[in-house]
Amino acid sequence: MTSRTTQLLAGLSALALIATGCGRGDSGGGGGGGEGAVRTDVGVTAEPCKDTPNLTKGCIFLGTISDLTSGPFKALAVPITEAQKKFWERVNKSGGIDGYGVDVTTYVRDNKYNPETHNQVYQEIKSKVLGLAQTLGSPTTAAIIGDLGDNNIVSVPASWTSAWAFEDVILESGTNYCLESMNAIDYAVEQFKPKSVMAVHYPGDYGEDAAAGAKVAAEKNGLTFEAVETASGQDNQAGAINAVNSKKPDLVILTTGPTDAAVIVGQTAARGFTGKYIGTSPTWNPGLLKSPAGPAFKALYLQSGPWETFTADTPGHKNMREILGAGVTGNDGYTAGWVWSYPLQAALKKAVENKDLTREGLLKAVKQLDKVDYEGMLPASAGNFSGDANAGVVRETMIAKPDESSPTGVSTVKTFFVGPTAKDYKFDKPCFQS
Amino acid sequence: MTTFLQAVAGGLGQGSVYALLALGFVIIYKSMRVVSFAQPAFMLAGALAVSFLAEALLGIPSPWGFFLALVLGAVGVALLGLGIERTVIRPMVGKPVFVIAIITLGIDIVVRLVANIFIGLDVRPVGDPWGLNSINLGGVQVQERHIVMLVTTVLLVAVLFSFFKYSRLGLAMRAASFNQETALAQGISVGTVFATSWAMAGALAAVAGTFQATGAGIDQNLWIIGLKALPAIILGGLDSLGGAVIGGFTVGLVESLVATYQGDFAPWLGQNFSVVSAYVVMLLVLLVRPYGLFGTKEVERV
C-alpha cells in the first residue's frame, strides 16, 4: 500500500513538473497578442528581472557556460564572465534593451573545459534562456553547435576559431586564429625578414587553426614551414623544445596555454635558441614575466591579438575600465568579455525594434546587423553578420610586446593592421579543415 | 654525444620529480594497500605553499630562504596529509581498498579546488633562485635546477632508505606492510604507521611539486604531472621503494631520450611519441614481469 502511495505521489509530482514546465513556456509568450506588442517565446518573461524592477517590459535571460573552477582557461574565463556581468549591468542602467532588463547571472554554469560537461549544463539551462551570453572554448562549443543551430539559439563564443564565421547562430568578434597568424607572419616578414617558420601548436581547432593560417602566410611569403603539434602539460613539451632547438626556425608561431609557452620559450632559449616567437592571445598570461622564463619572453616573444590590450585608449576600453572600477587588476580576459558582448546587445536591440524577441526573431535580427558599434575597440567595419563568411570576418590584428610596466604584462607595438596574406585570403571552410 | 648527455641530464632532472612522487604512492600503498589519488593535489598544494613561503622569506639570503621555504612547505603538506589521514581515511580502515581509493579521489578534488583559489588568475612563480641558468659540465649545458633536483632527490632517498632500515618506526612500517595483523599482535601501532606514511607521502609530493614548478611556474594544471608517477610505480613494482625510484628515473630518461631522438630515427611514430613513451615501456615491462621490475609476486591459491 505504502509503495502504491509513493508511486502515485511520484507520478503526480512528475505531472506537476511537466505542467509547470509548460506554464513557463506559455508565460514567456505573454506578449504574443496585441498589435505593437513584442513577440517572445523562450527565455523572456513578462515580469521584470529581479535586479532591475524599474525595467518593466520584462526580463531577457541569457545563459553563460564558462570555465570557472578547475579547467585550463580559468584565468581567462573568470574575468571574461565578470566583465560580461558588468557590461550587462551597464546596459540595464541605461534603460536596458528598450525597457527590457537583461539577466546574465541566473544561469551561469561551469564547463570545466570539458565538452561533455558543457553539453550537460547546456541541456540544463537551454529551455530557460533566449541565448547564450557566453559559451567558452572551441571544442566545448562544438559539442553543442548542432543543437544551438537547430533551436536558433544565438550565442556569443569565447574563442576565436575560424569555424564561427560559418555558423549563423554564433556572434563572434575580432579576427580568428587563422587570420591572426597570417598577420603575425606578415608582420614578422616586414620587421625582421625570417626565412623559416615553425608553428608549435595544440591539437584541435585552436592550435590547428593558427597553424593552418601560418602555413598559408609562410607559403605566400616564400618561407619554409613546419608544423609541430604538442600536447598540453608542462611535462609534455620535450618534443616541441627539441624540434625548435634542432631546426632553429627564424620564427615560431605559438598556440599553447601560458605555462606550456613558458616551458617552450624558456627551455629553448636556455639551450641557445635566438629566433622570434609570436604567440596568439590565449598563450599569454601576465604572470609569465615573473616566471623563470620571463627574461626569455622579454628577449624573444611578441604577442598577436584580435584587439588592443586592457590599457588601450579607445572609448570602449575607457568605459570598461571605469565600470570595472579601480580595484581591478588589468587582465585581457576583461577586455575579451567586454568586446564580445557588443554584438549581442546590438542584436537584442534590433530584435526589439522588429517586435520579435523570439529565438527565431533574434537570429533574424543578427542577420540584419551589418555593423556593430564597438566604441572603437574594433575597427569601424567590424560586426557585419549579414553577409557570407568572407564579408563578415574581421581581418585586423594588433601586435604587442612584453612590458612589465603594463598591468597585463604587454603593451601595443603595432595597432590594427591587415597584412597582404590576410587581406586576400578567401574562406570556403574553416582553416583547420583545409 | 653532447646531445645525448644533455638529454640524459634533462631526463634525470625530470625523473627526480617522478621518483619523489612515485615514492609517495608506494609508501602509502605499502602501508594500506591503497593507491592514493590524493598525491597530485598534495603536489600542487606543496608547490603553492612553497611559493608563498619563499615570498615571505625573501629577506633570507638566496638560496637558503628558498630551501627553508621548501622544508616548511613540505612539513606543512605532511601535516595536511596527517590531518586528512586521521579524519577521513582512518575511519574507513577495514573497508574495501577500492572504497578508500575512491575517497582519495575526492580528497584530491577538494584539496585542488582550495589550492586553485590561492593560485589566483596569474601563473605563480615558485620563487626558486636558479631560474633557467645552466652551467657547463665538460661541454654539456646542464641546468642548475636539474642538478639541485637530482642531488636533493638522491639525499632524500638515502634518508628514507636508512629510516626504513634502521629506525624503530621504519622497521615497524615494514613489519606492518608485511603482515598487519601479526604486526598488531607484536604491539606495533598500525595507526601510527598509516599516519606516518601519509605524512611522508605528502612531504615528498610537496618537494616534487616545487621542483616541477621551477621550470615555468604554478598553474592549476600542475597536478596532472602527478599522474606520470603511475607508469613509474607500475614499472618499478607497486610495493617496491627501490622500484619507485628506478621507475621514476626510467620514465624521465625514456621521455627525454625519445623526445630527442625519435624525430630523427622513427618519425613515423608521430610528433609526440615521447608523451606516451613511458606507458609503452610500462606495458613492455608488464609483459615480461607482471608485477613490475621489483614488485612482489603474489601467490594466488585457487
UniProtKB/TrEMBL annotation, chain A:
One protein family per Pfam: Peripla_BP_6
Ranges of residues in domain Leucine-binding protein: 61-382
Keywords: Signal
SUPFAM superfamilies: Periplasmic binding protein-like I
Signal recorded as keyword: yes
InterPro entries assigned: Leu-bd, Peripla_BP_I
Family classification: Belongs to the leucine-binding protein family.
Protein name: ABC transporter substrate-binding protein
Organism: Actinokineospora xionganensis
Automatic annotation (TrEMBL), chain B:
Domain of life: Bacteria
Keyword annotations from UniProtKB, A to Z: Amino-acid transport, Cell membrane, Membrane, Transmembrane, Transmembrane helix, Transport
Annotated localization: Cell membrane
Family from the record: Belongs to the binding-protein-dependent transport system permease family. LivHM subfamily.
Organism per entry: Actinokineospora xionganensis
Protein name (record): Branched-chain amino acid ABC transporter permease
Record-annotated membrane-spanning stretches: 6-29, 41-60, 66-84, 96-119, 146-164, 229-253, 265-288
A Pfam family: BPD_transp_2
InterPro entries the record matches: ABC_transp_permease, BCAA_transport_permease
Primary location group: membrane
PANTHER family named among the record's database cross-references: ABC TRANSPORTER PERMEASE PROTEIN (PTHR11795:SF451), BRANCHED-CHAIN AMINO ACID TRANSPORT SYSTEM PERMEASE PROTEIN LIVH (PTHR11795)
Membrane protein topology class: Multi-pass membrane protein
